[in-house]
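FW: tagging you since you asked about this chain on Friday. Here's the raw sequence from the shared folder, copied in full. Didn't touch anything.
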Amino acid sequence: MALVRPCRPNLAELAIYRPALECLDITFYYTGIDPDACRAELDGLGLAPMRAVRYRSYADWVRSPLLRRALDLKIGMGSGMLSRLDDVLCHDIINIVDPIYAHTWQIVRRMQPSQKLMLVRWENLYGRYEQVWRARNQSGRVLARADAIVCVTQAALHTLRLPPAFAGMVKHIYPGIDLAGFGPEEVRSAATILFAGRPQWCKGFRSLLVAFYILRERCKVDAELEVIGVEPGDCSDLVRELGLSGHVHFLGKVPNKEVRSRMRHATVFCAPSLLSPTWTEQFGFAMVEAMAHGMPVVAFDSGSIREICGESGVYASAGNAAALAEALRKLLLNPPEARRRGSALLTRCQREFNAQVQGVKLLAVLENLLASGPPAIAQANGLAQQAPFLLS
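HL: got it, structure written out here
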């Protein structure tokens, strides 16, 4: 099987493919990240048997990170394959993600009828593809060709619009994490908030800084903020303006072992993901890892976050820094409630987001694909009767 991903992929999603590696040869095709770093992260996820191949893409020609992100995420052009396409097309099963990306159409145009296409859907906004240049017709053709669509959340499932010609299967399977080495910590640091995420506006870190200022200066809570994944230069102006220099600790990009160590000792995990007309939080791997450590989670109510954390998460209206500060205050000043919520989130994580359990479900889909013949129109008719909301 070929796993093909766009520029700067989130490798954490690959953890659920470990059970499939016991019976399938899997090659991971990626772009936008360093080969050594990719290999090290895959090995850390228990995916040493997975072959990793870097392909050249249009994003490699762009030096500006902002422009590269715009090419890939806004219009889907950055990950067009300039190499390795023929290698991908040698596989019986080709696994891709949401079909706005240029490489998905490159692959689908050249696939043979006997080859199987699996699409992993993260998108959780209804009609999102119609808002992307070139995506409406392309995505419809890719979806119509898919033999299986795996939706990573219920939101992704319920916002899926299938073309009338679709004749494959649709499954909901949560991503998962390897739970080995995770667990609650009996003693946590006093009033320490942890943020872990990419330095992108949508992750809401600047909103968290404002909420942290309100928490300290107006609510008079003596708290500290630890930051993973964001460099000081990304927001040093705001930190100085708010007078938070001595209380915001930038840890940069650290190994996963260090991330786990911080999660074991911090008090609260904060996920301040924002909303926009074209994006909401699709899952949140760092948040799920925090849950696996028994950490309580305070988050903006964005996208799939409430679906992931359930009733045990604490939520604030997206973008409302004052509401976020109040939610943090309530947990930081009430340790028993924080422990109760953290314990409930740990139980939820063990039940819903175990990579081994979810991987077995995914393996069943792959085995079904290998055993099935060409898709039949009758399957599409049956799907329409079971879930008519899936058909546009």
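FW: The longest helix spans residues 335-352.
HL: agreed, and The radius of gyration is 21 Å.
FW: great, closing this out.
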